[in-house]
Amino acid sequence: MEEKIYSVSEISLEIKRVIEQFIPPVWVEGEISNYSISRIGHVYFSLKDENALINCVIWRNIAGSIPFHLAPGMRVIVRGDILTYSAQSQYQINVKEIRAAGIGSLFIAFEALKSHLSREGLFAPELKKPIPAYPKRIGVVTSITGAAVRDIIEVSGRRNPAVQLVIYPAQVQGEKAADTIIEGIEVFNRLKNVDFIIIGRGGGSIEDLWAFNEEKLVRAVAASELPVISAVGHEVDFTLSDFAADFRAPTPSAAAELAVPERNILEQKLVQYRKRYIQLISQIISQKMQFLDNLYSGIARFNPQKIVADNIRVLEEIKKQLNKAVAYKINQVQLHVNDYRSTIHALNPKEILKRGFSIVYTESGSKVIRSVKEVLKGNKITVEVFDGRYNAEVKSITKQKP
Questions:
Q1: Comparing 84-93, 113-122, 324-333, which segment has the lowest mean pLDDT?
Q2: How far apart are CA 131 and CA 25, in angstroms?
Q3: Which of 174, 243, 229 is nearest to 200 (CA)?
Q4: What is the CATH architecture assignment of 8-120?
Q5: What's domain 135-261's superfamily in CATH?
C-alpha cells in the first residue's frame, strides 16, 4: 500500500481539523505569564506549569466582564476552545471564562488592581467628599435579608429615630452582585433623595467579598456625586471599595454609629446652643442699649435748639464785650481827638496872632518872609494880624545875631 504524502499546508490543516473538531471546550489551570493588552483591548497571555506552556487570548468583549484584575504570577482556571493557527502550526486557547485558582491568586489580583487604580488617582485623599454631620435621609445599598441591614436599622433607630433609611436591595455576593450595587449607587445619585450612601455587607472570605473588589464597582463608588461610606465585612476586612469611598467604616454597625448623630447628644447641644445664643443675644441687646443711650446723650448734647440757644448766649456775651470794647475804644479815641484838637487849636496861627504876633508877606501876599535877607529897604510888604492885613514899607533893616 502506497503511503500518503502530505504537504505542509495539508498536514497543518488536518491537525487543525482534528484538534478543533475532537477537543471540546476545556478547563485549564495554570500560572499567567507573558501578559499584555493590545491597544483595542484584547488580552494575550500564556498559561504555564512546570513542564509546558500554552498561549491564550481573551477578546475584548469577554475581557470587559472579568471580575478581577489579571496579573503575571496569578494562578487561574480558564475555559475555552482550542484553536490552531495552521500557517505556523501554533495553537492557543480562545478563553470564554476565567476564574482565580485559590486565595493567593485573588490576593495577587487585589494588589494588582489596587496598584493600578491608585496610580490612576482614584484613591487620592483630595477627592474625598465630607460626610454630612446631620443627615435627614441615608441611602443603604445592601442585601435586604442580610445581617448588615438589620444592624444598620437597629443602630440607626437607637441613635436617632428621626433619621430615615432608604434601603436599595442588592446582591452582595455572586456573579451579579457588583452590578446590583452599582445600580443602587446610580439610583440614589439620580434621585438625589438622600444625603449620602452606605454600601456594605457582613464579613466573609475574600471570595465572598470579591464583588466589592471589582473594578466597575470601585469606579462607580469613586464617581458618585453623593458621599459614599463603605462598610464591608469585619474590622480586619478591607476591599478596594473601602479605598475609593469617601469614608470607610469597619463594620455596617460602625457605619450607622458614625453616620447617624445620637439624638440625646443633639438635644444636649441644642440646649447648650440655646443658652449660648440667649447669652449672646442678651449681650448684643445690652451693647445696643448702651449704644442707644450714647446716641440719646449725643442727641441731647448736639440738639440744634440747644446749640442755637447756647450760641445765642455766646453771641450776646460777645456783643456785650464788643460794645464795651467799642465804647472804650471810642472814648479813648475821643480823648485823643480832644488832645489833638487842643494841640491843633493851640498851634493855629490865628490863635498865635491873637497873642500879638503877625505874619509878614511879600507885597503880593503869596510868600511868607522869614528872614531880613528876603527884603530890601523900600520894599512893599503885607502884614497879617489876627483880624486882618495891612500894607507897609520897609524903612530900615536891622540884623540880629542868632
A1: 84-93
A2: 50
A3: 229
A4: Beta Barrel (2.40)
A5: Response regulator (3.40.50.2300)
Q: Is the torsion defined by CA of 112, 116, 121, 127 positive or negative?
A: negative
Which own/partner pairs from 9-17 qualify as long-range (CB within 8 Å, at least 24 positions apart)?
A: 9/86, 12/84, 12/86, 12/87, 12/89, 13/86, 15/84, 15/86, 15/89, 16/84, 16/86
User: Is residue 313 scored above 70 in pLDDT?
Assistant: yes
Q: How many CB atoms lie within 10 A of CB 56?
A: 22
Mean pLDDT value across residues 247-251: 92
- pLDDT, position 298: 73
263 Cβ partners below 8 Å, 6+ apart?
159, 160, 161, 162
Find out whether 210 and 67 touch, Cβ atoms under 8 Å. yes
Task: Report the distance separating Cα 265 and Cα 273, nearest Å.
Answer: 12
Q: What is the pTM of this model?
A: 0.54
- Those residues whose C-beta lies under 8 Å from the C-beta of residue 332, and which sit 6 or more positions away, are none
Per-residue pLDDT of 51-87, as tens digits, reads 889 999 999 998 877 877 788 888 888 999 988 887 7
Specify whether the CB–CB gap between 30 and 75 falls below 8 A: yes
Question: What is the pairing mode between strands 388-393 and 380-385?
Answer: antiparallel
Q: What residue spans in the chain does CATH classification 2.40.50.140 cover?
A: 8-120
Note whether 218 and 241 are within 8 A (CB): yes
Q: pLDDT by residue (tens digit) across 200-214?
A: 998 877 778 889 999
Angle at alpha carbon of residue 87, lines to 82 and 89, rounded to 5°? 50
Backbone angles phi, psi at 213, to 5 degrees: -105, -5
The number of residues making up the chain comes to 402
* Residue for grid cell 533893616: 397
Residue intervals in the chain for CATH 3.40.50.2300? 135-261
3-state secondary structure at position 359: strand
Give the DSSP letter string of 175-209: TTHHHHHHHHHHHHHHH--SSEEEEEE----TTTT
Q: With 60 as the cut, is the pLDDT of residue 1 above it? A: no
Mean of the per-residue pLDDT values of the chain: 87
Q: Is the pLDDT of residue 235 over 70?
A: no
CB 394 within 8 A of CB 379: yes
